[in-house]
Design goal:
Distance between the termini of chain A: 41 Å
Largest interface: A-B, 21 and 21 residues
Oligomer: heterodimer
Strand content of chain A: over 45%
Helix content of chain A: under 10%
Largest sheet of chain A: 6 strands, mixed
Strand content of chain B: over 45%
Order of helices and strands of chain A: EEEEEEEEEEE
Number of helices of chain A: 0
Chain lengths: 115, 110
């Protein structure tokens, strides 16, 4: 059974810092890995999607990497801003086993960027 | 507007009542999913559907029923609501191996 773990569970940083969020997964049989953002009381917004054949994806100040063989992904946020404060969720789309075709989510990292 | 919509957005009900949460998508995606999100548990899959009239259980299906008579709709029914079903419910569909989520329904069972 696929398990996804995110570290740290919570992170508080001053504005302007560069930061890294970590995601690890136990089964490397995945189609892709996706990072989502969730604001309090809101739905999920997709930030970046990395296909299993890719190593990284970039969007603005965000960069996500994927090392499928080691079961790890990182989300790098450059020059953090208070507006980046949210919960960040990592999810893998499973390509094998009993979770085939389904997303498995990590529990998220709660990010607070203070002015 | 294209996308996934959920209704109602907020619902308060009582223990033992039947509740149906609606989900509608405009892309004609084959796969649709229902998740619940709870503090300490993250997002957990309740049911999913590969196509109209094809549904299957996810991780936490007990107490829920789904149907899919049309591709664009995937309603979730709580047959007899319990307090443990108080949660935020998200519907999603998948296209080009990317999942798209609805805005969620906040359900409170008293």
């Amino acid at each position: 059974k696929q398990e996804v773990t995110q570290i740290p569970a919570a992170l508080s940083v001053p504005e302007g810092e560069n930061l890294v969020l970590n995601c690890s997964f136990t089964d490397s049989a995945i189609y892709n890995l996706q990072w989502f953002r969730q604001d309090p009381g809101k739905g999920l917004t997709s930030l970046l999607l990395i296909q299993s054949s890719q190593r990284e994806q970039t969007s603005g100040r965000l960069n996500a990497s994927l090392d499928k063989s080691s079961g790890r992904s990182t989300l790098y946020i450059a020059a953090s801003q208070p507006g980046d404060s949210a919960t960040y969720l990592c999810a893998v789309l499973n390509a094998g086993g009993t979770s085939y075709g389904k997303l498995t989510f990590g529990q998220g990292t709660i990010l607070t960027v203070h002015p | 507007d294209a996308g996934i919509t959920q209704s109602p957005r907020y619902k308060i009900t009582e223990t033992g009542r039947q509740v149906t949460l609606m989900c509608h998508q405009t892309w004609s995606h084959s796969y649709m999913f229902w998740y619940r999100q709870d503090l300490g548990h993250g997002l957990r899959l309740i049911y999913y559907s590969a196509a109209a009239d094809i549904t299957d259980k996810g991780e936490v299906p007990d107490g829920y029923v789904v149907s899919r008579s049309k591709t664009e709709n995937f309603p979730l029914t709580l047959e007899s609501a319990t307090r443990s079903q108080t949660s935020v419910y998200f519907c999603a569909s998948i296209g080009l191996k990317t999942q798209y989520f609805g805005p969620g329904t906040r359900l409170l069972v008293l």
